[in-house]
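Researcher: I'm comparing several assemblies side by side, and this is the next one on my list. It has 327 residues spread over two chains. Same procedure as the others: predict the full complex and return the structure.
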Amino acid sequence: MSDAKLALVTGASRGIGKAIAASLGKSGFIVAGTATSDAGAQGITEAFKEIGIEGQGFVVNVSSAESIDELLAALKETYGKTPEVLVNNAGITRDNLLMRMKDDEWDSILQTNLTSIFRLSKACLRGMMKAKWGRIINIGSVVGTTGNPGQTNYSAAKAAVIGFSKSLAKEVGTRGITVNVVAPGFIATDMTDALDDTQKEALFKEIPLARLGSPEDIAETVNFLASQGANYITGETIHVNGGMYMG
Amino acid sequence: MSTIEDRVKKIVVEQLGVSEDTVTLEASFVDDLGADSLDTVELVMLLEEEFDTEIPDDEAEKINTVQAAVDYIKANVEGA
């Protein structure tokens, strides 16, 4: 069994999560990447093989407590250890103006983007406390701080992630466990591919670095927070947004 | 095989870093042995592992002394 630490990255089949998994893998972590479907998990396993990092894909529904329990059991069985690095990246959007927002659009965002972080952190903390070392890195969003029309649900959840992370950081700091947030701005993913050139031009006026971020820009920040070099950083939110919002 | 009491005491001594003679049956983890709230959570985790059992949260909250831990284990863990 490998001595390397196990890192769990949710939502690792594409976009930011995929880049985070690759970056942690290259840093020497065994990476368990999660997806919501068998095909997604299979794709993760293949992607890891291709770039030569240790680890594989697992199926999990982060909004289900049972599914999370099964995942932790599967990790224990596969690697004989629990994750010491947890990257809560999985997330969804269900944008709508508040006046038109359905209960379901509100509830599903809170479940998937916030409650999942509560559940996964709780599940992984036991192992981290035993190890007296751990890293919980939550992926937030610039809109959790700035707000954005059409995203009351999403920005509320992302702002809540910051409060959650600060409180948990205070609870578990004495055990060598840090909890931080990385808050991306506009990143080139499937989500932003939908923007046309005019929209992008308008966007770049607000971004001093005048480009969309890459998933790797986020992944490198996460990788740093997971490293020994970030030992003394906790409860912090690091904005990675090209300067569109400066904390 | 050591007694349940000995096994519980050993866990308390190791987790809280206190000397064996302070860990009496009645000593309160928090008030007498200087445990913080997270220590009490970890103690329960360690008891679960030592005795291969799962202690529900509402029961865990009542385990504040060695005696309470011993009583819980005697009542709930077969073969301990």
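Model: For your comparison table: The interface with chain B takes residues 126, 129-130, 171-172, 174-175 of chain A (CB under 8 Å).
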